[in-house]
Amino acid sequence: MIRLEKRKEPSKFWRIANPFLAVLLTMLAGGIMFAMLGKDPITAIRLIFFDPIFSDTFGSYSRPQLLIKSAPLILIAVGLAIGFKANIWNIGAEGQYIMGALFGAGVALAFFPQPGWYIFPLMIIAGAFGGFLWAMIPAILKTRFNTNEILVSLLLVYVAERILAAMSLGLMRNPDIPGFPGSRDLRRYEAAYNSELIANTGIHWGVVAALIAVIFAYVMMTRHMLGYHVRLAGQAPRAARFGGVTPARLVVVCLGISGALAGLAGMFEVSGPGGQVRIEFASGYGFTAIIVAFLGRLNPVGIVLAGLLLGLTYIGGELGQMMLQLPSASIQVFQGMLLFFLLALDFQTNFRLRLTKGARA
Amino acid sequence: MKKLLTAAVLSAALATPALSEPTKAGFIYIGPVGDFGWTAGHDRARKIMQEHFGDAVETTIVENVDYGADAERVMTQMALSGTDVIFAASFGYGPDVNVIAGRFPDVAFQHATGYIQDHPNVSLYDARFYEGRAVLGHIAGKMTETNTIGYIASYPIPAVISGINSAYLHAKAVNPDVQFRIIWTYSWFDPALEADAAETLIEQGADVIMQHTDSTAAIRVAEDAGVMAFGQASDMTQFGPTAHLSAIVDNWAPYYIDRVQAVMDGTWEAQNSWLGFADGIIEMAPWNDRIPAELQAEADALVAAIAGGEYHPFTGPINFQDGTPWLADGEVAPDVDLATMDFYVEGITADLPN
To answer: Structure pTM?
Structure first.
C-alpha cells in the first residue's frame, strides 16, 4: 500500500532537482506528442533545445536573439518573484510593461528630432516610473480599501491595452504617415534607440538592466532587511507583524519594485527590438514572466536559467515550425507541459510516498 | 568514348542537384492556419501554389507570429535557411519586413496589405476588399428588418475603414433608414472577443452581422441567435448554414503562383499590386438560399459591374462625415484616398477611434 506523508521540511534536493526533471519529462512527453503528429521526435527536440544555440546555420543569429527574448522575461520575473515571496500577487505585469513603454516612448517622441545624450536616461526613468505608477493603483487600492491586488492588477492590463491602442491611433501616431496607426520608428531616432551595445551579441541596455536587477534582487533577498521582511511576511505573516513588518508598506514596496522593473522592460523593448508604439506592441511578456518566476523557484539565479530556457523554447519552437512544420499550438502545449510537470513534481517537495505493509486497510 | 560517357554522366549528375534545387517560399502568418478565415485563405493559396509547382517549390510556414521582434526573428531565420521569397501575410508586419529586407537584399519579400516599401526587394500586394464590401452592404441593406447592421471591426486602418464606408454607402443606397453599429476589437483573431462583440451588436438590434476579423465566432453566435451574418476571407457557411449569407472569399493563389514563378525565372521585381474582382483575387461565397432570387441577381450584377470596370464603389457624390464634400457627382475616388482612408463618410453616426 502506498501512503502519502507530509515532509516536516520541504525537501531541498527536490526543490533544485525538480526543474531539471521537469525539462526531461517535457522532452519525453513532448517527443511522444511530436511522434504522434508524425514528426521525428529527436529532430524536433533537437530543433527546439539545441539548434538555436549550436546549429551552424542559425546559431550565430539565434544566440543573441535568445538574450533579446529572455531579457524582458527575466527583468519582469525578478520583480514579480519578490512580491510572490511575500504573498503579494502582481498578475498585471503586462499592463505595467505597456505603461513603461508608453512613458519611455512618450519622452522620446516629445524630444524628437533633437539629439542629446540625456534623452535615453530620461526615457529609462520615465519607463520605470510608468510601470511603478500603474502598479501603485492596485497597491493603494489594497492598502486603503483592502481590494484584491490579483484582480485589480489583472484588470488594469486591459485598461493599459486600450490606452496603448488610443496612443497608437492618436497622440503618438506618426504624423508623417497619415491613416496608419503606430508611432515613429524609434530605431531611426538615434538619441532614443536602444541599440546593441556590442554588435551581433544581442546585448542591449535591457539585457544589462536584467543582469543588474538579478544581482540587486539576490543581494536584497539574502542580505538586506527588506528581503528578510519579505520572506518572513510570506512564510509567517503573524510573526512578521510582531517582528515590525508593516504589511501596507510591504505591499507598496513589492508592487512598486515589480511595476518599475516591468515598466523598464517595456521601455527597453519599445526603444529597441519592438521599435515603435503600436497597437499590437504587447506580446504577453508580462504573463509569461509569471511562469518564469515560478519555474525559477522565485530565486533570482533560477529565474535567469528559467528565462533563458523559456526564451529557448520560443526561438526553437519557431525553428521547429519552420523546419519541421510543427503546428504552433504544439509548441504552446510543449511550453505548457514544462509548467505542468514542474508543478506536479513539486508535490514531492512537500510530500513523500511511503510504501507500507498492506494489512492496515 | 567510355571516358566521354562517364564525363557526361558525371556532369549530368553534378548538374542535376543544381537544377532540382527547389525554390524555397516561406510564409509567416499572424493567426493559426486553422482560423477558417484570413490565415486559412493564405494557406489555401499556398497549398494550391505548392501543388502547381510540385517538387520545384518547397514551402514552409510559421503561424501565430506576433508583430515586432518575433516577426523579425522568424523572417531572419527563414532568410538564413535559404528561403528565396518570404510572404508576410498581415498588415502589421510592415516595419519588420522592411528592417529584414534591408539586411537580406537577395531575398524577395512579399508583404500583404502593407504600405511601407523602403527597399527594392519589398513587394506589396493587397486586395480591393471594399469591392466585396459593396456587395455585402447591398445585400445587408435589403435583408435587414431592424435596419440595424452590426459591424465587428479589427483595427482602424485604411483597409478596414474603407470596407465600413463601402458597405455603409451600398446599404444606404438600397435602404435609407439603415444604421451601422461598429465595435472595434483591436485584434485580428480573438474568438471570445468576437463572440462578445456579436452578442452586443445583436442586443443593440442588429440582425445582420458583418466582420472584419478572422474567426468564425460571430457566425456561430449569429446562427444561435437566429440573425444573419457574413463570413470573412473564407466561405464560413459550415459554421452557420442558416445565418451565413455570403462572404468575401480571398483567392491569393493566382498571385502566389505568378510571383513564385517570377522568382524561379529570375524576373521578380518589387511591385505594388492592388487587385480586385477583375483579377479573381476576391470572389463571393455562394449566396445563401434565403437571399431572394431577385436580390441574388442584383448582387451578381453588382459584382459583374465592378469586375468589368463599369462601376466603382466609391463614386460621388460622397461627403465626409461632417457633411463637407469629398467626391463630386460622378467623381471616382483616387486610389491614394482609399489606401490612406482615415475618415467615415456622411451618415455613419459612430466616431472613429483615436
So the answer is: 0.81
Chosen CATH of A69-325 out of 1.10.40, 1.10.3470, 3.30.450, 2.40.30: 1.10.3470
Q: Which residues face B320 on adjacent strands?
A: B345
Task: Respond yes or no on whether ipTM tops 0.85.
Answer: no
Cβ–Cβ < 8 Å for B131, B279: no
Q: Are A112 and A276 in contact (CB under 8 A)?
A: no
Burial A337-361 (b: 16+ CB within 10 A, else e): bbbebbeebbebbeeeeeeeeeeee
At B166, list the grid cell. 463601402
Phi-psi domain of A258 (left: phi exceeds 0; alpha: psi -120 through 50; beta: other): alpha
Which residues in A lie closer than 8 A to residue B78 (C-beta atoms)? Answer: 322
Of all residues in chain B, the one with the smallest CA distance to A172 is B354
- Separation between Cα atoms, residue B79 and residue B58, nearest integer Å: 14
Q: How far is CA B3 from its chain centroid?
A: 58
**Distance of alpha carbon A259 from alpha carbon A250, whole angstroms:** 14
| CB-based contact, B156 to chain A, within 8 Å | yes
pLDDT tens digit sequence for A225-265: 888 888 888 888 888 888 888 889 999 999 999 999 999 99
Q: List, in order of start, the domains of chain B with CATH numbers.
A: 13-127+252-275 (3.40.50.2300), 129-242+284-339 (3.40.50.2300)
Q: How far apart are CA A26 and CA A33, in angstroms?
A: 10
